[in-house]
Amino acid sequence: MSWLLGRNRQQTEIVGSNGGTGTDNDSESKTAGERTGDSQLTKAERKAMDAYRFDSTALERAADAAKTLERSKHAREALELSKMQESTRQQEYQSKVKEYEAHIEQAKVEQKRIDHEERRKTLIEETKQQQQRAQYQDQLSRKRYEDQLVQQQRVQEENLRKQEESVQRQETMRRQTIEHEIEMKEKNRLKLLEHELRAKARVDRENRDINLEKIRIKAQEHRTTVLEGIRTAGSVIGAGAEAMLTDWDKVLMAAGGLSLLALGVYSAKGATGVVSRYVEARIGKPTLVGETSRFAFLDALKHPINYFKRLRARPSDALQGVVLNPKLEERLRDIAIATKNTRINRGLYRNVLMHGPPGTGKTMFAKKLAEHSGMDFAIMTGGDVAPMGKDGVTAIHKVFDWSHTSRRGLLLFVDEADAFLRKRSSEKISEDLRAALNAFLYRTSEQNPKFMLVLASNTPEQFDYAINDRLDEMVEFMLPGLEERERLLRLYFDKYVLQPAAAGAKRFKLDTFDYGKICTKMATLCEGMSGREISKLGVSWQAAMAWLSEQERADHKSITKVKLPLTITANKL
Questions:
Q1: From CA 451, how far away is CA 412, in angstroms rounded?
Q2: For the whole model, what pTM was predicted?
Q3: 286: Cβ–Cβ under 8 A, 6 or more apart, which residues?
Q4: Residue-wise pLDDT tens digits, 311-356
Q5: Which ranges of 207-325 does DSSP label H, i.e. alpha helix?
Q6: Closest CA to 332 of 352, 316, 348
Q7: pLDDT tens digits for 364-403?
Q8: For residue 495, what is the DSSP state?
Q9: What is the model's pLDDT at position 440?
Q10: Hey, what's the torsion of the CAs at 554, 559, 563, 566, to 10 degrees?
């Protein structure tokens, strides 16, 4: 505690310095002697002595300070202060110890956290290594499996090639055998024919005189017969002419008979023409009409069942089986209702023009409109008028005359009407076609209660202006949209696939699958296709399944179970 008494320590040092000169000198001399003695020792001995050497200078200063403190009047306060400082130092030491312990604990926790983190990283790394190892093993197994498949495919191809070579060799041997047989048969036939000809030639040479005698006798008999016939005919004709010329009554009777015969021939010819034209107008059908719902007399005799069904048929919906845009369907339904009411009230029919891309349902709607209205329909093509030449005018008049004979009213549908109803001012058309156009305009100049005119065209801008004046309604048929294509696909799938599959013959069976989802996907792929093209697509499905059925039957299986090849069609699209 000498540091607490610094002042007294300084005084003591001063006193010591003043009166202690001898002591210091003694100590210095003693130290010098010791150094002189130490210099004579070895280095190891000096190290041993330094280890056991004790410096008592500090103890002497402490004793002096204690004595000074005891003589001071503030000794007790200094002691208390020293105790308090000592206790404070102890507390500080304890707090430092606790902080050190806390630091140690924190270091342990941090070490545990670091160990845990290292362990977690180790586990992650091990998991990653295991995944990579599993992936590598999977790749190896997949590659091994692919190699096996490739090897199997090579083996199969090799076997197939060997089989094909074997079949080719067998086919070559069979062909050679057949050719050899044919060659041998031909040689035998030639040899046989050669023997027959030689035998016949030998017989002819032996009987040559007899054959010549037969030919000579036969020619003489034929000449005699011809001469006798000529003599007999000449004598009969001469006797008849002589008798008629000598008797004038017979001459007059012959002239009158010939005149009456000529009159009968010409009268029968005229009557036959009149009757044929009447029969053609009432019973038959004109040349330009390709298809009609009117039954001719001969058709009724050929197909009596269809004729009676036609009589018993009831009017159907005009849009039944026709899939169109909803707005277009609404407009066409209004036209169908108006046409039916016109027929019931015996009013004047309105002429309609239907234009748009091919295959969008124009002809189908025209037929449905006629059936819905209870009318007969007739279909003619504009391209049939031009090849008829001068007869085109007569044929058009026959069509309209025939239309006026319908008791139920006739819907005349002219398909590809722009083929002969072109503009007369700007289009270069022949005189015959111009005359046919004029005849058509003449017969359609006024609306008629007997027939309704429906024109169809892909290019309506080519019509003559007079044709546009005779039209009351213009309807545009567009390509089907997404919803309409899906409805068409479902319709034709039911018509060409489901109904034949459910028929009594059971030509094939369908596998269980969501055909609605496939039809939806196909509707997206069929963008830009018309209704006719989608219908042909349905027919191709049926043909594909029929072909698969035949292939299965060839393998001696009674019932075929196939799946609709929509995906193949989609890939083609």
A1: 7
A2: 0.48
A3: 280, 395, 398, 399, 402
A4: 555 656 777 778 888 898 888 889 989 988 988 888 899 899 999 8
A5: 208-246, 248-282, 297-302, 304-312
A6: 352
A7: 888 888 888 888 888 898 888 888 888 889 999 988 988 8
A8: I
A9: 92
A10: 60
